[in-house]
Amino acid sequence: MAIERTLSILKPDATRRNLTGKINALFEEAGLRIVAQKRIQLTEATAGQFYAVHKERPFYGSLVASMISAPVVVQVLEGENAVLAHRGVMGATDPKKAEPHTVRAQFAESIEANSVHGSDSLENAATEIAFFFAGTEILP
Ligand code: RTP
Ligand code: MG
To answer: How confident is the model at residue 131, as a pLDDT?
Structure first.
């Protein structure tokens, strides 16, 4: 098994409802270690750049607006097969389709305000981690 790192975001719907501790507990129970974490306010420019892959999707404008509606917590999670393990704990994008024990099933408000983001591949994880963190901020 490979030790990986992945980029996690606790989205505005989660910070607004003061759910960051409950969500972090689920990550830690799944064997993921929070090796970097900070609370930041995204802007239209930074959220737009982060979600640039979705630029042509119909939900892009609404997604960016929702991501800048309150602070987010950005994190680096480390653990065995962290990318897939993290996506497993998050559950399906649409909370109605998410497994009952997952973050999204328990906490998401909607398919868009779905509480968490996680990188979808090891390659994207490296890019997304570098988007938010300097190497010196990650302390395993
Ligand atoms: P994420 O990238 O945030 O970890 O989520 P994901 O892979 O499960 O979903 P993705 O398809 O990459 O979509 C990114 C985010 O866009 C919002 N979304 N809204 N209204 C809609 O139909 C819709 N579909 C996706 C969600 O916030 C999703 O997490
Ligand atoms: Mg995605």
So the answer is: 98
Give CA–CA dist 27/43, Å, rounded. Answer: 26
Q: What does the pLDDT average to over 74-80? A: 98
ipTM score here? 0.95
Tell me which residues are annotated as active site: 117
The percentage of the chain sitting over the pLDDT mark of 90, rounded to a whole number, equals 99
Q: Which atom of ligand 1 is nearest to the CA of 66?
A: 27
- Binding residues for ATP, by number, are 11, 59, 87, 93, 104, 114
SS (H, E, C) 48-69: HHHCHHHCCCCCHHHHHHHHCC
Tokens 């994880």 — which residue? 125
